[in-house]
Amino acid sequence: MKLLLLFLMMFAGLWFFAELVMKMGLISKCRDKTNRFYWALLFLCTTLVVLFVYRKFIFGDIVYAFNDIGSDTTQQYIPLYLDLIHDFQRGNVSVWNQNYGLGCSRLVYQSLYFDPFNLILIPSCVYLGDWFLPYALISIQIAKVYIASIGFYIFLSFYGFKEPAKIVSSLVYSINGYLVLWGNHYFLGNACLFVLLILVGIELYFDNRSRLGRLLLSAGVALVTLLSVYISFMTLVPCAIYALLRGVYLNESWSKGFKSFSDFILPVVGGLLVSAVVSVPVAYLLLFDSSRISGGPSLQSKVLTALSSNVGLGDLRLFLLRVMGNNYAGTWSSDFGSSNYYELPQIGCSGVIYSFIFLYLVWLLSSKRSRTRNIVLGIALVLPCLYLINTFFPAFLNVFSEVKYRSSFFIPVCCCLVIAVVFDQLQSAHFYSKPSILVAFLISLVISVLCCIGNEGDAKALSLFLMLVCIALIACLLLSVKSLVRFVFILSISAVSLSMADAYVSVTCRTHLKKDSFPTYQLVESGISANALNYVMDNDSSVYRMDKTFSEWSVFQDGLIQNYDGVTSYNSTRPKEEISLLDAFWQGNTDGTPSHVYSAFFFDQNEGDAAGLFGVKYVLSGDELSYDWLDLVEVIDHIYIYKNRHYSFGTFYSNVRKENDCINENHNSLWDCLNSGEAIVDDDSYAKLDRTLNNDHDSKVSSVNVTEVDEGRYDVSVSSDNDGLVMVPVLSSPGWRAFVDGSEAECITVNYGFISTAVSKGEHHVEFVYIPYGLMLGIFLSLLGLFIVCVVVATPFRRG
Prior knowledge:
Largest sheet: 5 strands, antiparallel
Shape: elongated
Distance between the termini: 54 Å
Strand order of the largest sheet: 14-15-21-17-18
């Protein structure tokens, strides 16, 4: 009932948004009663689509979070959301997240934290409680479907298509394979929405409403860049190609097309600069901190390799079937060879899309238009084909990191434009001959038969449904004597129904979290380890990490869910400093892959020295442990609480040693260095410190006491009888700053990845503070961008 009420409120809000769009005049003649009828029809049809595809999430007991190959939702996004909600509720929100493994800048997950839909999700969950998160997740996905439907309808209005053609294409786009599949990776699906915002801005500009067009263009660029620098690049490149081709097509001149394309530069630059307050610090993190862009062949080599590589026939078959839908090539239990299901192209624009493409080619070859326009339409047709056949565009849009198809969201735009063109022409009298239409749907019938033969389970059922639809359409076509009205009507229902069926399989025929097992605060507090965790936190207020030999709510993210600092985490963007740390001191803690995506205490739990170095003070176990570095503290609810004898959260080193000297030495030599009071530093730091530190190995330190003021800030009191380095086991990252007795000092990375700073002998107060590197530059550029956007929008310029 609560979700139904929320759904009705959201529907009312979207209807208000639609009325606002009408008042702004984004849709021509929108005050006309006929247009209002089609507008209402679009809303009604979108509602029926939503109720069919997502009804089990609305009325059932499953949560919009998957435990199969899409388990990032349960292993990363939901724990991160819960952690952020709890931080807001406690009033302790920081850019640095200490709960996430060894610590992590929240800017690393820019796409999650700067999702504009968080403006709805976070306040609602903070106010109502985290129990509302499952309802918020599905509500936001439903809102995205509505916005995609409305946005594409607005976009098509600039082409002058007939209303039925616009409605059918908009419905297919609203549940295209990309938005549906990446919907559970909550931020990537947003690309389908932002690309529409930018395209509408471009069309408004060409429609002589340049001020509003430039404003929407700048806003779209700013929003998508705030969401993700990665997604921004994947979005802006196809939009730039569209703007160029659209300008040439409208002007029927390449020179005028390039001239109109150049007019978009200032609005785009302004939008990019507006987002700089976030994108500049993120860029620094990517350049200095991310393991994803380090190493590998040269850029020239990557470009040449991508240009010369084509997709194999086996993968091409999968790709072509993914144009029809996500599931015609098989479903979640099937083997897709070397390709991850999510990393294949996600297009899914109705099972009969190849019939539409055939009829589009007939229209393209039969209609009379200028040579320039024919070339533009030919390029627009070839580019998506090259994307699927050759690996250059997928690699280029993934910044040549590797060949991935996460940029495939622009192909549904192309496919749905094709559907709109064909439907528009089908409603024109006698444009298509019956034989051409018959051939088109015989093509889809043959494909459906082949899919039925080669598939099993859900994929076979979907293919059988497609085959029956094709047979029905062919029969209807043959029975239509004078008019194709009945055939066009049945075709419109069939095209949308096939998309609905595929979307339903994509989101429902999966392994989901259940609402009664969703890790809300109330449920977590009743868990088997809750009392043991509370006992430790209530009786020890010092700074430390603790971890468990078992997982309870999420295999790798219990720390985020239960609000304790541990070393176990699943981080698909693990920084190179953390990888270096784990490689040097705790290799058994990782999954063995080069990027160490999975790191868990229970992988290698008998490492007292490593646990101590990483600041692990307590270990919780469901079984009795006999390790000599652990002392039993208490047993609560059959959970054994142990204390680490080797624990320290703050270490003083009186000497330093170069990393290069340790590269060829064995594991024990590293520990010999640390145990003898030698910190391991890079060559540059060694050159600075070697001349100032006391080399007396017998020197002592009086005390090091660390206090966590909040996430991203540590106060350290140190008293020593000689010069040295004071280290805190917090992951080094661009943005950490050190202050000794109020004066800023150099923050030095030691032991392959922890923060430290140099202090002289005596008593000192040291502060470590995290302020994202490049933040002030980003603020300046954002203010500059706002100024540029205001000037561009205010300029009374209209295209002739």
